[in-house]
Amino acid sequence: MSIKTKIAIAKPFEGKPQINLPSIIGASSKKPILVRIATIGQRPIEYEAIDLPDSISLKDNILQGTIENDGKYEITLIAKNALGTDEKKIIFEIKDQNVLVTPLLGFTTWNAFESAVTQDDVENIASRLVELGITEYGCSYVNTDSGWQEKYGGKHDAIMPNRKFPNMRRMTDKIHSYGLKCGIYSTPMLAAWGCPNELTSIPGCTQGEADHRFALTNGGIGVIHKERNNAIQWNEWGFDYLKYDWAPTDPINADLMRTELTQLDRDFGFCVTVRAIKEYSNYWSKYCNSYRSNPDTLSNWDNLVEIYETYFDFVDYICKGHYFDLDMLDFGTCRLHTMWNCLTDDEKIMEFSMRAFLNSPIQISSTLENITDFELSVYCNDEILAINQDCAFNTSKLISRVKEENRYFDILEKELEDGAFAYAFFNLGKISENLTVSLDENGEVRDLWAKENIKHQGNLLLEIPSHTSKIIKSTTKILLK
Prior knowledge:
This protein has three domains: about 20-95, Immunoglobulin-like; about 105-390, TIM Barrel; about 395-480, Golgi alpha-mannosidase II (Immunoglobulin-like, Sandwich). It starts with 17 loop residues before the first strand and ends with a strand. α2 packs parallel to α3 (about 170-175), α4 crosses α5 (about 250-260) and α8 (about 345-355) packs parallel to α10 (about 380-390). The chain has an eight-stranded parallel β-sheet. Strands 22-23-24-29-26-27 form a six-stranded antiparallel β-sheet, with helices on one face. It has helices spanning about 110-115, 120-130, 170-175, 225-235, 250-260, 280-285, 300-310, 345-355, 375-380, 380-390, and strands at about 20, 25, 35, 40, 45-50, 55-60, 60-65, 70-80, 85-95, 105-110, 140-145, 150-155, 160, 180-185, 205-210, 220-225, 240-245, 270-275, 290, 325, 360-365, 395-405, 405-415, 420-425, 435-440, 445, 450-455, 460-465, 470-475, 480. It has ten helices and 30 strands. It has about 475 residues and is an alpha/beta fold.
């Protein structure tokens, strides 16, 4: 299959060091901080941290500890290898409920393993992310989707894992040992989606009769609430993030769970899904780190376009720490079937581009078996991921749209913290698009997927074939002709 979009090949363990962390990392006071210093470059690499608070320790490439008081703490990270040195200033921004100030970068199990997922799968994925170097581009969460549950029990009268997850604490300890964080899945519904084949149903965070105030999806939401029981259990196991999944997604049940999570002695990222409708956007954009209102990814073109279009209903509500979720990625290998390979390689690049440019969380969901150079290079482009993690926290805005007959062509703009501008060109139509843009003759322009500077003399001619995308960064604004 020929690829029309030129992309740079990822080489995570070659060259001089480069630290790939956002310039701001958020956390709550008095709650555990765990940060892997994501760094590409030839091994071995030595690390140093200047002005590190006494309560934070640096061991190898992992920062760990707590910070007692709210405030902003600037530190300088230094990475050295035989070929050179890199320095990066970051700010620990400490205040209540300040986790995931930039979109989540990580892995989730659903498309890779579905409900057949096991503890061994999750632990092996964490190891594989490190071995492949994916973690050195900022991938920092390993999230277990549905399929872990069985029934209520234990000392907290909470949902207990099935036999495929014999020791949750061992699993989270292993993931944490890499400097990564762990996520878990649940629902307020009486029965969760994603039941393993060997079970008849799996429980959610409510029990009893269905509450008539809410929809009857999967038996409805029960009148007996077990949010506290389950939150305490997840905290004891060592989880750091919850995907909370039901439809229609309502702020009442979201807030019952959110309130319990905020009272734990560790920070919990909080994602609500799957139909967080626009009418409640004021809640989602204040209290949820991410929120979804779109179909599951299905690895076909129509599904890709449908998910992309849901962004524009929520664009005005996206802000620092609260992002609209375009769902997990759906390419790579899958344990149960091959449906995740129905997109062309250019369409896969577009799928990733949309998540990166539109401030969405990005979650790989592949078994990572027999991973190709292409897949690794899509997952691991530091310049594309930097747009997603940019700490100016600006929303990507649509500045041009052509939608007629065989044409569907969007241009979006995002202003970055270094004063530059990023532009995404998405050709969702059936014909190639050619356009000329003008800019300051002294301005620098870079193709971020190819990781190449573009020569110009004030005018730039761009060709965007059908079902392809291009992302550029310019030191000055562009003007469309």
